[in-house]
Amino acid sequence: MQYRKTEVLVIDPVHPDQANIEHAAVLLRAGEVVVFPTETVYGLGADALKASAVERIFAAKGRPFNDPLIVHIPDEAALEQLTSSIPIQARQLAQVFWPGPLTLILPRSPLVPGLVTAGLETVAIRMPRHPVALALIRAVGSPIAAPSANRFMHISPTTAQHALADLNGRIPLILDAGPCEVGIESTVLDLCSPVPTILRPGGISFEALRTVLSEVQPPPQRVGTTLAVDREKNRSPGQLLTHYAPTVPLLLFDGATEGMRAAMLEEVQRRLEQGERVGVLVADEDVAPFLENGAVVLSLGDAAAPEKLAETLFARLRSLEEANVQVILSRSFDERGIGLAIRDRLLKAAGGKVFRSC
Ligand code: TXA
Ligand code: MG
Fold first, then answer.
1. CA terminus-to-terminus distance, the chain
2. 93: CA distance to ligand 2 center in Å?
């Protein structure tokens, strides 16, 4: 799908201008795709009940058809038409966390096109809390299917500029409401498995879900490898890792802060000496020692403020890509609260492997 130009329309994030909303809604009603802000990341939306419109999402992103989409709704009443039954747990969770960054996997109704659910008997549903998203879904008068508005396998966009960088010329319109508040995608919770289980950690923490549903299970342990940093042999960790899916390989370091920092510094130094262009992702407290050696050093913020770390993570990863580094070395962070989602995204970027300093 080629468009001569992708229009970027600035819109107030708190009190969206109705004329701008209507401009986007006209496109969506006509079966087009539109990028719009949510509180988590920007989404690439289409009318969820029109298969031909949903097909355009996959085309614009280059996403395979076997990856199902989240359907965004404006109110709980919309659950009726999209599901074949609504478990009591869904009602309990919706009451506390909707609108917000929680996606529920529910039994689908036949009204939902198979393209949206990738042929599954379940459907992913969430009610976003961003005023622009809610106003848009209401104006369209139909639920909106939307994945993150990035090219397939790339980092989710937390600004309109990120979405434009990935989708320019492939979509007609982006609504630009500034940076996303949460910065990391919604938590996906499976309510169709025997025990409610987190499939993807995200904006609503495991601990918060447990306060409402004590039986909620954390995401299944990632099959990953922990690699000890072998300083004596000065082994190159990069050679043992799979590639960072987007464009730059990422090496994730773990362990107590001091040891982790020392291992990272050593590896940074070694790579710089080999003439590599190295990117470093750390917290404010780690920055100083890295500044002296010529690496591109970016901080996610105060390590003790996980919400802030989550908000900046994807933007920093994109900045490092744009700085043309050949490798990114990242520290890891506390796993509590939204920290679990941060770790999940860093682990994915690292191909599931972690260097644990002892
Ligand atoms: O915060 C978010 O969730 C953002 C915004 C735009 O709402 N959307 C988002 O969508 O991250 P996407 O497509 O990038 O990720 C959706 C995730 C995928 O991991 C997909 O496999 C999973 O939800 N998913 C969708 N439908 C599912 C289903 N029926 N069963 C299991 N997983 C499903
Ligand atoms: Mg995505």
1. 51
2. 23
CA of 202 to the centre of ligand 2 (A): 12
Indicate the length of the chain as a whole number. 358
Assess contact for 314 and 307: CB atoms under 8 A: no
Residues 72-87 as b/e (b if ≥16 CB within 10 A, e otherwise) read bbbeeebbeebbeebe
The helix/strand/coil state of 62 is coil
| Tally of CB atoms within 10 A around 251 | 27
Strands 353-356 and 225-228: parallel
- Helix (H) / strand (E) element for 144: namely strand 144-145
CA distance 309 to 330: 13
Q: Residues lining ligand 1, CB < 6 A?
A: 38, 40-41, 43, 67-70, 101, 103, 105, 117, 120, 122-124, 146-148, 185-186, 188, 199-200
Look up the pTM and report it: 0.93
Ranges of residues in the chain whose predicted pLDDT is under 50: 223-225, 227-244
pLDDT single digits (tens) 238-281:
222 333 355 799 999 999 999 999 999 999 999 999 999 999 99
